[in-house]
Automatic annotation (TrEMBL):
Location(s) in or outside the cell: Cell membrane
Transmembrane parts of this sequence: 27-45, 65-87
Domain of life: Bacteria
UniProtKB keywords: ATP-binding, Membrane, Nucleotide-binding, Transmembrane, Transmembrane helix
UniProt key word Lyase: no
One Gene Ontology term of the molecular function aspect: ABC-type oligopeptide transporter activity
Species of the source: Flexivirga oryzae
Entry GO CC: plasma membrane
Name the UniProt record assigns to this protein: ATP-binding cassette subfamily C protein
Length: 421
């Protein structure tokens, strides 16, 4: 049941969890930001030099300006490349340890989880988190974060460069901002639910496949193969349909972005024509402004487009944080004496689902201390369920399990009785 899945952290808790992973690595984070800013500034040089070259050609002094433009563009490209390398190296030096810490913390918490809670959620949900979700966060850190950082810096510095060239041309370019905003708002409104649903569907699919592998003999013995294959097919089809819906949403999103780009460039060229005609600016300034604005296409497209991968990464991180932030069972008080006496199951009944038939019904069993007991029976008779109830892995629907003088808390019971499958 979906209500039994392990929790997903809230946006606030996810943010706190992410910050806890990087707060001790602030120096490489600062180096990353500064290096990306430097690389972004280097990227502003070529459009500015080309604009100066255009004005120099119109004035008849283009030869010297052409040499300056060529040399300056080459130097800025080298500097930009070096700073990008520094930024990527610094980014790796804090993101990779953070990712390793995430893996370790989630795995450690998974091992400490209450066994009955894992049973309720299904092993597939937990496996999809420590597998698929960790992989999604890893891809976001390695592939998405660097591009997002570069793109964000490029957008901010390019806007500053446009203002420095001519504030009126910058104002014309900003006409496109509401269109980008509307596109992003439309995307965020539609995408959040899609990605959350996609992660849940992947967990349910993993659980269905895992059940089929682990319980294959039982499924075959009861002739449930066709029914379980149908269950796997339904879960897989649901995950597939959600993925196709996401792809269709992205196609519409990119179309909206292309429309915003066309509007912005048309406004800059139109305003530039009017300003040049009125001798309020130069052709070189309009050229530089148009090139700078055109330079925004890729960064803005990356910022908006990578929200796809970023949303998936954030959704995965929220699921990991949901596991990592679960409260751990309280440890036994120091010096607590081990329980002594017979293991008793009194009137124990258990149902895996409220609507399903009980797996065991009204079982009375006493196992004297130190005695070995073998439980035998046909497949599906409830042997595994009975062992899980005795060990405190499952909570009885009716009746109680006790050792010695009386019932023990579930955590103590799990410390006294161990299942070796």
């Amino acid at each position: 049941m979906r209500s039994q899945l392990l929790p997903t952290a809230t946006a606030r808790d996810t943010g706190s969890f992410a910050w806890s992973l990087v707060r001790d690595r602030r120096l490489p984070l600062a180096v990353t930001v500064l290096a990306f800013v430097g690389a972004g500034l280097a990227g502003l040089v070529p459009p500015w030099l080309i604009g100066r070259l255009v004005d120099a050609v119109r004035a008849g002094t283009g030869e010297h300006a052409a040499v300056v433009a060529a040399v300056g563009t080459g130097i800025s490209a080298v500097i930009g490349g070096l700073l990008t390398w520094v930024a990527m190296s610094a980014l790796a030096s804090f993101s990779e340890p953070a990712l390793a810490a995430t893996r370790e913390e989630v795995f450690e918490q998974a091992l400490a989880l209450d066994a009955s809670r894992v049973e309720e959620a299904g092993a597939g949900d937990l496996l999809s988190r420590v597998g698929d979700d960790v992989q999604s966060v890893s891809e976001a850190l390695v592939d998405v974060v660097p591009v997002l950082a570069q793109s964000a810096v490029a957008v901010v510095l390019t806007v500053v460069g446009l203002v420095a060239i001519d504030w009126r041309l910058a104002l014309a370019g900003l006409v496109t901002a509401p269109f980008y905003y509307a596109s992003l708002r439309w995307y965020l409104r539609h995408s959040s639910a899609f990605y959350a649903e996609q992660r849940i569907a992947q967990g349910e699919r993993a659980q269905a496949v895992l059940d089929g592998v682990q319980e294959s003999r039982t499924i075959r013995a009861f002739g449930w193969s066709a029914a379980h294959l149908s269950l796997i097919d339904t879960a897989s089809d649901r995950a597939r349909r959600i993925s196709l819906d996401v792809f269709g949403m992205l196609t519409r999103f990119f179309g909206r972005n292309n429309r915003a780009e066309y509007i912005g460039l048309a406004c800059i060229l139109g305003a530039g024509f009017a300003l040049v005609r009125s001798d309020l600016t130069t052709v070189g300034a309009v050229t530089a402004a148009a090139l700078l604005f055109h330079r925004l296409f890729n960064p803005i497209g990356a910022l908006l487009g990578l929200f796809d991968d970023l949303q998936a990464g954030v959704a995965a991180l929220a699921r990991l944080a949901g596991v990592a932030l679960l409260p751990r069972p309280a440890a036994d008080p120091a010096g607590a004496a081990p329980a002594a006496g017979d293991l008793r199951l009194a009137g124990v009944t258990f149902r895996y689902d409220a609507t399903a038939a009980p797996a065991v019904v009204d079982v009375d069993l006493t196992i004297p201390a130190g005695r070995r007991v073998a439980v035998v029976g046909r497949t599906g008779a409830g042997k595994t369920t009975l062992g899980a109830l005795a060990a405190g892995v499952l909570r009885p629907t009716g009746g109680c399990v006790s050792i010695g003088d009386g019932p023990l808390p579930e955590q103590r019971l799990r410390e006294e009785v161990v299942i070796v499958s």
